[in-house]
Amino acid sequence: MNRIVELSTRCAEKIATLPREKRERLDSDLDICLPEMMVYQREKSLAQLEGFISLEEAMTIYNALNRWDRAPLQTKVAVTLSMGRILERKRG
After folding, report:
1. pLDDT tens for each residue of the chain, 92 residues long
2. DSSP for the chain?
3. In this structure, are residues 71 and 40 in contact, taking their beta carbons and an 8 Å threshold?
4. How many domains does the chain have?
5. Which residues constitute the domain of residue 49?
6. DSSP assignments along 67-84, one per residue
7. Within 10 A of 48 (CB to CB), how many other CB atoms are there?
8. C-alpha separations of 12 from 8, 20, 39, 43, 47 in Å
């Protein structure tokens, strides 16, 4: 079970109901800069080493981040939501 892929599928269904303008704005809002990407990659790796996410999920995130500009919107949303959970684990 890859929770990132499952979340992406659920996101695709919801995104499909949005008007084009909102999809475009969401896509623009999800742009990430290099320092953010570096933090995401590091934290994703630590989460996998700690057993918080599986290797398959870590690879899904890794691959999405490496082609972020070309990633489908539902993938960007799913990875962003997942990274939020990964980052929150340290606060809990």
Report:
1. 999 999 999 999 999 999 999 999 999 999 999 999 999 999 999 999 999 999 999 999 999 999 999 999 999 999 999 999 999 987 76
2. --HHHHHHHHHHHHHTTS-HHHHHHHHHHT---HHHHHHHHHHHHHHHHTTSS-HHHHHHHHHHHHTGGGS-HHHHHHHHHHHHHHHHTTT-
3. no
4. 1
5. 3-88
6. TGGGS-HHHHHHHHHHHH
7. 19
8. 6, 13, 26, 25, 25
